[in-house]
Amino acid sequence: MTDPVYRRVVIKLSGEYLAGQQGFGIDQPTVDRVADDLIAARKLGTEVAVVIGGGNMVRGVEVSSRGVSRTTGDTMGMLATMMNCLALEAAIERKGTPARTLSAFVMPEISELFTRTAAHKYLAEGRIVLLGGGTGNPFFTTDTTAVLRAAEIGAEAVLKATNVDGVYSADPKKDPSATRFDRLTHSQAIEGGYKVMDATAFALARETSLPIIVFSIAAPGSIGAILRGVGHGTIVAG
Fold it and tell me: Which amino acids does the record list as binding ATP (predicted)?
């Protein structure tokens, strides 16, 4: 078996993806398929941590536009990420692989608090570690959370799993002439205003010298393909 390109990664999943075709909530077959991909990635020898968005349940910006304060809306969104983490944790463990959810919030009846020590311990034990609650602060996206946590735990890359196979010059669903980039620098990604990840996340990745690999999660086994160096995506680095 080919050794994986990265020994420790943070995988960023969108909450919307977990809703499957239903568009809202948690679609169990989709969660099970993602769990299979994460387990396969772990079996390659890579230590895997996961950050999940909460957009399949609550998007803080949208909630705040309807009268709730932005701070409250973002907190609701962070709690939604916890529900997604717990659902994915249950699916992973049901398939026989140990997992552990760590939360940015103190909620001892539900989850252990995230610390670097706890994350290192569980990753070294071979668990898939799910990082819920965002950064624990409003106004920061789960994209930024993924880069922040990757820097904190010494991950070698952030794998941004999306519904497109990389970063494009424009939205390929709207502009058929859009071209895909094989590689970009962090600065080019920020200056280009590409919406696949927010500018704060790209800026933090640049500051911490973390590569971001943007790829499509649609095909089963896509995470493992990226880890083996044969996947299709855009590398944002340097």
Answer: 12-15, 55, 59, 162-163, 168, 171
